[in-house]
Amino acid sequence: MKIEIGLTSFADNSEIFTDKGKTSAISNAQRIRNIIEEIEIADDYGLDVYGLGEHHRPDYAVSDPVTVLAAASRNTKQIKLSSAVTVLSSDDPVRVYERFSTLNAISNGRAEIMVGRGSFIESFPLFGYNLNDYEQLFNEKIELLMQINQNEIVNWTGQLRPNIQNLGVYPRVEHGILPISIATGGTPESSLKAGALGLPITYAIIGGDPKRFRRNIDMYKSIAESYGHDVKELPIATHSWGYIAETDEQAFREFFPSVKASHDVLAKERGWPLYDENSFIREAGPNGALYVGSPETVANKIIETVETLGLSRFMLHTPVGSMPHEHTINTIKLLGERVKPIVDKYFENK
């Protein structure tokens, strides 16, 4: 059984926190250049997929993942290149398809679209969308995107976007269609929607016991079957925060400061409790959602999650917060060179 191992990033860019203190943030331009290098290293070390997030705020450097992925595609050969996610509700499905079909051409067929409703909502007022239409925007736009993906000539009628009457969308994908999946933090609505549409799903598991997502996955499969979809043909993936070093102790020491800094920014915005070492240690343990430690520790936790949830892809989200670039590069190398072989060997005869 082949399990894909990959990475996701939000291109975090704020003050850099380490166990030795903090330093000033680098420029967004340099962070974007670093991301391109990280993707190239991931490809060199045999990782299967890299997903890049879209944000429109000062502490994340990338607002248009496709442009960055396209730049990275020129010096990569095998790695799949995905958004993580495209905030479809505040974008236009025609432009989304056009951008990703162009990326697909540049990368020789390696483009993927991971769409979501948007857990960060800055893009809605920025592009003139009403948050009261949050659900309807996504539902209309995912259906239009799927129609465009399947048909060169589009006829479509909706309520929140101008109708399309017998018009073509170009360029078309060279072979087949674009892989489209829905990403979710675990809301039942997203599992139900993905199952009904017969789309692959990615769960962002960033807190609590990953095993609790078994219920979401069972619901997703049940709905998919009820709509006539073959669940064996629907890949299920997760992404979770993580960091790898030579030892568990080193990984814990180096990762905690940036995780706390990143979490606490969102905690203040959203009314969450602040992060502390007890929370970190709990999440880094066997029943938590942090994949942090030595290569062996991280590999074994990935294996358990893949088996428990029936995954076909696991993506490590790193860095969380701003970390020194060399720390991120080292994690990527260890994931490809030492974690992935352990996972591959375990599942090769499953």
Structure, explained:
- It holds the Pfam family Bac_luciferase.
- This protein is α/β, with parallel strands linked by helices.
- The chain has helices spanning 28-44, 65-73, 93-106, 123-126, 134-150, 188-197, 214-226, 248-270, 277-284, 295-309, 325-347; strands spanning 4-9, 16-18, 21-23, 49-52, 80-83, 86-87, 111-116, 153-156, 164-168, 180-184, 201-204, 236-244, 291-293, 313-317.
- The strands form 3 sheets. An 8-stranded parallel beta barrel has the order 1-4-5-7-10-11-12-14, surrounded by 8 helices.
- Strand 6, helix 3 and strand 7 form a beta-alpha-beta unit.
- The longest helix is centred in the last third of the chain and has 23 residues, at 248-270.
- It starts with a strand and ends with a helix.
- The model has no long low-confidence stretch (mean pLDDT 97).
Tally the beta strands: 14
Strand content: 15-25%
**Shape, principal axes of CA atoms:** globular
Question: Which series of helices and strands comes N to C?
Answer: EEEHEHEEHEHHEEEHEHEHHEHEH
- Round the Cα radius of gyration to an integer and report it: 20 Å
Helix content: 40-55%
Structural class: alpha/beta
Q: How many helical elements?
A: 11
What spatial order of strands do you see in the largest sheet? 1-4-5-7-10-11-12-14
Largest beta-sheet details: 8 strands, parallel, barrel
Termini separation: 5 Å
Which parts are unreliable, with pLDDT below 50 for 5 consecutive residues or more? Answer: none
